[in-house]
Amino acid sequence: MADQLLDVKGMNCPLPILKAKKALKDVPEGGTLEVLATDPGSVADFQAFCRATGNELLEHGEEGGVYRFILQKT
Amino acid sequence: MNNGTEQNTAIDPKTMCIIVTKGSLDWAYPPFILATTAAAMGLEVAMFFTFYGLPLLLKDLDLKLTSLGNPAMKMPMMGGHMGMPNVVSMIPGVDRAATKMMSNMMKKKGIASIQELRDLALEAEVRMIACQMTMDLFEYSLDDMIEGPELGGAATYIEVAVKSHINLFI
Fold this sequence. Notes:
- The structure holds two protein chains of two kinds.
- Chain A is an alpha+beta fold.
- Chain A has helices spanning 15-25, 42-53, and strands at 4-8, 32-37, 56-63, 66-72.
- Chain A has one domain (4-72): TusA-like domain (Translation Initiation Factor IF3, 2-Layer Sandwich).
- Chain A has two helices and four strands; from the N terminus they run E-H-E-H-E-E.
- In chain A, strands 1-2-4-3 form a four-stranded mixed β-sheet, covered by helices on one side.
- Chain B has a single domain (13-169), classed as DsrEFH-like (Hypothetical Protein Ychn, Chain: A), CATH 3.40.1260.10.
- Chain B is globular, with a radius of gyration of 19 Å.
- In chain B, the strands form two sheets. A five-stranded parallel β-sheet of chain B has the order 6-5-2-1-7, sandwiched between helices. In chain B, strands 3-4 form a two-stranded antiparallel sheet.
- The A-B interface holds A 10-15, 17-18, 20-21, 39, 48-49, 52-53 and B 33, 36-37, 40-42, 109-112, 117, 120.
């Protein structure tokens, strides 16, 4: 169970990344953030975001048009 | 060889500087999307607003769009993509309709408004510089603008750009 859940379904680039960045502020170090998105661009974006910021993308998947990301704050 | 004047010319790899020269509804997006996303990814971002980019700093944004002279503008309509001939774009009221159509499309597809992106940029401490010369030229005052931007000229921009890893002219 992630420490925080962020629902950005229906939001388009760059909102998923921007909201995730904001939400991560409230996540303790080592904690996790679960993100639900419908923007297909977010798949590549969250990988790039984690590579650039050093946060880890623990898992990512898609189910019924909804993309799910688990980010770990490092 | 060090001549006594220390000058730090090292480029910081996590910096970006954007010159914003256009202010229509469509062209307002690239600078704000790139600036906010770069800031979210840890870059230090500066935006220099000049000429028609300057109105993007106004308190009351009234961004418009035109299809006139915009041959690549083909909007999703009736299953395909349709452009508009210039002679139609010129008719009074058509620009307003195009603007309304674009903003409705954006709302429907969950795309942030420019106001929202601008607020996020300020929150992310993106440095915003308003071109002093353009302010004088078009007779804008700082009172017309939102809180946050500083005034500067070309030299201010050059100083920031010299240290920026990414320099964009939009």
